[in-house]
Design goal:
By secondary structure, this protein is an alpha+beta fold. The protein has helices spanning about 1-20, 65-70, 90-100, 120-140, 165-170, and strands spanning about 75, 105-110, 145-155, 170-180.
Length: about 180
């Protein structure tokens, strides 16, 4: 760029200088224009860095070992109700996020009830509870083929006392890690 600017200024200076002293005849020839320097080639497009594969530390554990770690949280239900409580939806969302990020884990959603009511009634209520939790996980993107449901009704209580606090603990959906896809 300096050379071309210098050449143009020199040519203009000569032209003006020649105008005062020129007494006819052809005008002095201007030097040919200097071609602009070609810019360097554009750099190749950046290739995204490939993140190194980080091995999942849970992948090597058995289903029983995974289950023993308590990785999935239970949710609870009101008396004689199978509808999900609003307070439990964030818990289900965390469970769903965990299952989506560990796509090899299979889960059985267990429905449980308290001791009140008949065996048959509680088995049906437990099934509705498990199904509602299952459906919500599927709605959050957990593949249905990695989930199944079972009802235990009132047969496997966490707490044996006959009190509201104990019954509330027993009215739950438990998410048991029961297998692995791979």
């Amino acid at each position: 760029m300096r050379q071309s600017t210098l050449a143009v200024l020199l040519a203009l200076g000569l032209a003006f200088a020649g105008c005062h002293h020129h007494k006819g005849g052809p005008a002095p020839a201007l030097p040919p224009p200097v071609a602009p320097a070609t810019p360097p080639p554009a750099p190749p497009p950046a290739t995204p860095e490939i993140a190194p594969q980080v091995e999942d530390p849970l992948a090597g554990l058995s289903s029983a070992e995974l289950e023993s770690r308590g990785l999935l949280a239970d949710i609870h239900f009101e008396f004689d109700i199978a509808d999900l409580r609003d307070a439990d939806k964030p818990v289900l969302a965390q469970n769903a996020d965990f299952l989506k990020s560990h796509d090899y884990i299979k889960v059985t959603v267990q429905g449980h009830c308290d001791e009140r009511g008949t065996v048959e009634y509680n088995l049906a209520l437990g099934e509705r509870r498990a199904r509602n939790a299952y459906d919500y996980l599927v709605s959050l993107g957990v593949p249905a083929d990695r989930l199944k449901t079972v009802s235990y009704g009132k047969e496997i209580p966490l707490c044996q006392e006959s009190s509201e606090a104990c019954w509330a603990r027993n009215r739950r959906a438990h998410f048991e890690i029961t297998g692995k896809v791979r």
